[in-house]
């Protein structure tokens, strides 16, 4: 009876649970779980940095952000990524391959070192 009453008043809504990853490369993302706010969906954001590096993010997004191409600042050095958020509406539908944090750290460090070396060689 209480559930019916709450539904009719609109006070009860299910919270959508999604994976969250602030930054991943290719299909590698260190994920955690997150709860979306009301009227948000799970998303997988995909984009390219410098036309070579596949970048991925996961999380919750407002409906109006879904399917829209945006430019995101990736690093403090003004590397920009054109990214599109692909949304879905079932729990954990934005699945990503989980990596141990140390594997992601090593991958990120190798990537940043390679990028820094290529930037240094172009500047000389």
TrEMBL record:
Protein topology in the membrane: Lipid-anchor; GPI-anchor
Signal peptide extent: none
Domain of life (superkingdom): Eukaryota
Keyword check for Glycoprotein: yes
GO cellular component, one term: side of membrane
Pfam family, one: UPAR_LY6
Gene3D superfamilies documented for this protein: CD59 (2.10.60.10)
Major place of residence: membrane
Keyword RNA-binding: no
InterPro entries: LY6_UPA_recep-like (IPR016054), Snake_toxin-like_sf (IPR045860), SPACA4/Bouncer (IPR046354)
Subcellular localization(s) per the UniProt record: Cell membrane
Domain UPAR/Ly6: 16-95
Keywords, ordered alphabetically: Cell membrane, Disulfide bond, Glycoprotein, GPI-anchor, Lipoprotein, Membrane, Signal
GO biological process: sperm-egg recognition
Family statement: Belongs to the SPACA4/bouncer family.
Protein name, per record: UPAR/Ly6 domain-containing protein
């Amino acid at each position: 009876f209480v559930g019916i009453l709450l539904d009719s008043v609109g006070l009860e809504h299910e919270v959508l649970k999604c994976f969250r990853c602030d930054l991943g490369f290719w299909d590698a993302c260190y994920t955690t779980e997150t709860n979306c706010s009301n009227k948000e969906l799970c998303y997988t954001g995909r984009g390219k940095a410098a036309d070579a590096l596949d970048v991925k993010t996961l999380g919750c997004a407002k409906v109006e952000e879904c399917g829209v191409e945006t430019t995101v600042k990736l690093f403090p050095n003004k590397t920009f990524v054109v990214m599109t958020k692909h949304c879905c509406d079932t729990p954990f539908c934005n699945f990503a391959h989980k990596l141990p944090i140390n594997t992601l750290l090593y991958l990120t460090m190798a990537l940043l070192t390679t990028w820094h070396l290529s930037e240094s060689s172009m500047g000389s």
